[in-house]
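Q: Got a minute? One more chain.
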Amino acid sequence: MKRPPLLNLAAVAGVVIAVSLIAVKNVQGNATNEILNVSYDPTRELYRSLDARFVAAYQQETGIQLQVKQSHGGSSRQARSVVTGEQQADVVTLGLYSDVDVLRKQGLIAGDWATRLPHHSQPYYSTIVFVVRKGNPRQVHDWPDLIAPGVEIVTPDPRTSGNGKLSALAAWGAVTTRGGSESAAREYLAALYRHAVRLDSGARSAAIGFTTEKIGDVQLAWENEALREVADAPGELEIVYPPVSILAEPYVAWVDANVARHHSERYARAYLEFLFTDVAQQTIAEAGYRPYNASILQRFAARLPALKLFPVTAIARDWDDANQRFFDENGIIDTVLKPAGGVVNSSAPGTKDKG
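A: Always. Here it is, folded:
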């Protein structure tokens, strides 16, 4: 049998190689590179905006098209879902230091996680404020007003929610940082929960109860959530800034164990680093969170006024101490909640969105 000329064989081989390269290129172009951001309850809108800007910027810079998926729920519940493996988070953007640090204790993130990003891995901060009905009919201006006769409070459950934990600590510190004893703070906290008509599992379900279902006279809410609620219901709600409240410091980290498994560390790291850029800091302020960038925060001074905020170290040694004293089994929260048998507890699970 006559062999084909070598030139023809080379041409055929060249065609095969060219077709193969085109196929590989097409497969790469159509591949979906995903990361999952497991976050706390009220950050849905914030991260939808941030994700869109990050994905566009990252594609322009690298040519890689990413997809960021979001999951939201009570901060402490979200942390537990990552620990158990229920959610394979590439990054966590949770409401409390302790909710991120529990992943370190379980060997899921590195020991130096808090120093791997700018500003101690805190791209923004916030606080707890009061949301009241139009005209503030119950005349709620300060923490003692919350336990006046007839006042009904909506606040998330401190056993599952970062908002709930911070509200409890803010209430306690509103007594002790102004000269009150711990005994008086315990009595006040017990009274506060006697006035609570609903303890939801997270901030967003509490907001729905207060704004849509019209439950309660006052809601203890993240500042950003309060701003959103007032904007969504013009003329119906108002924000009351108490004279003192707690400094709320959400933290972010990539989850080393999961990014190693997913081969996604470069995406996760780039995503979190983006949060500290001026573009992201501006978006953060627009969404009602207080950016770490002081000059950008100053531009929003009318919307985000200066506040008197105390850190967790004003009422505990650190977050580990606060968790042990207040939120562990038989801690202060268990003690003050036990008599509040009439409080409704709901446990809506976290929800996932594509961002």
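A: The first helix runs from residue 6 to 30.
Q: Perfect, thanks.
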